[in-house]
Design brief:
- The protein is of the alpha+beta class.
- Strands 3-10-5-8 form a 4-stranded antiparallel beta sheet. Strands 4-9-6-7 form a 4-stranded antiparallel beta sheet.
- Helix 3 packs across helix 4 and helix 5 packs across helix 8.
- The longest helix has 25 residues.
- The protein starts with 24 loop residues before the first strand and ends with a helix.
């Protein structure tokens, strides 16, 4: 899971320390009257062999592999890395598949989910640019969930068996992956905290705050962004009905907290949204 759900420490929206000035930016028009959105422009890659060559120029690489890991070992890592494009609705892997690779999202959004015994989808998390997928399959060699692209996405892959061999003489790389796994555990714990909140508007507010904090960390606008998941998918993740999600968003819009236009969202009053997320209103 990739959305940071513990939202009490969201930094100031305009703190420049959190903006990645190395990202290549391109404007994506929004719907209606809302402003344009800025997203990293990912250099085009036609085949897996050239994928690692552009890694230093890829905005999200600082989330996947920090410079002190990437630069000294780029050649060795290049031998075990690959690249793939996936269309909206395509699977990166399915529950039960053998675990062979870790998957880093270079651009796009991916959801992880399971199918219940009665055939209902259960969404585990929403994953964004820079997130690493497949870590949960390391312990038994089988993926426990499906990973499905929410939009056209570009994925970097790392073959895990040779990666383990690199850990033996690259302790900084091992440390980095342990940190990623620890962050995943923390996100799972925060998800439990969020889902323990019984108030509908509190869950929705916390979810929106978590998205804003993720976009801020990636160098995007934290006040205007497009939600890549549908209302149904959001409700499935939060344990709410589509009608409850729509009603909560409508209430926030009526209160002047949010401006919602289909999947385009603008935060108008961050203080009020934080208060709602904390259950103070």
């Amino acid at each position: 899971m990739a959305i940071v759900l513990f939202c009490s420490a969201l930094p100031s929206f305009y703190n420049e320390r959190h903006i990645d000035r190395d990202c290549f930016l391109t404007a994506i028009p929004s719907r209606g009257s809302m402003s344009t959105f800025l997203r990293p422009r990912v250099p085009d890659v036609q085949n897996a062999d050239s994928a690692w060559a552009i890694c230093p120029f890829c905005g999200p690489h600082k989330q996947c592999l920090p410079p002190d890991v990437l630069e000294p070992y780029a050649t060795r890592l290049g031998h075990i890395s690959g690249h793939r494009r996936v269309a909206r609705g395509d699977y990166l892997y399915r529950a039960g598949d053998a675990f062979t690779h870790l998957h880093a999202i270079r651009s796009g959004d991916v959801k992880t989910s399971r199918v219940s015994a009665d055939g209902e989808e259960q969404i585990i998390g929403f994953n964004m640019t820079g997130d690493l997928l497949g870590v949960d399959a390391i312990h038994d060699g089988r993926h426990r969930c499906n990973a499905i692209a929410l939009e056209q996405s570009e994925i970097c892959t790392l073959s895990f068996t040779p990666l383990q061999e690199l850990f033996l003489f690259m302790p900084r790389l091992l440390q980095h992956f342990l940190q990623l796994m620890a962050a995943e555990i923390a996100r799972q714990q925060n998800a439990i905290i969020l889902l323990g909140n019984t108030r509908t508007e509190q869950r929705v507010a916390a979810f929106v705050i978590s998205l804003a904090s993720r976009y801020l960390a990636l160098g995007y606008s934290p006040t205007r962004f497009r939600m890549r998941m549908s209302r149904e998918e959001m409700g499935c993740y939060l344990g709410m009905t589509n009608e409850s999600i729509s009603r909560a968003l409508s209430n926030f819009r009526r209160q002047g907290v949010l401006n919602v236009d289909y999947r385009d969202l603008e935060i108008l009053d961050i203080a009020a949204l934080r208060a709602a997320a904390a259950g103070l209103v």
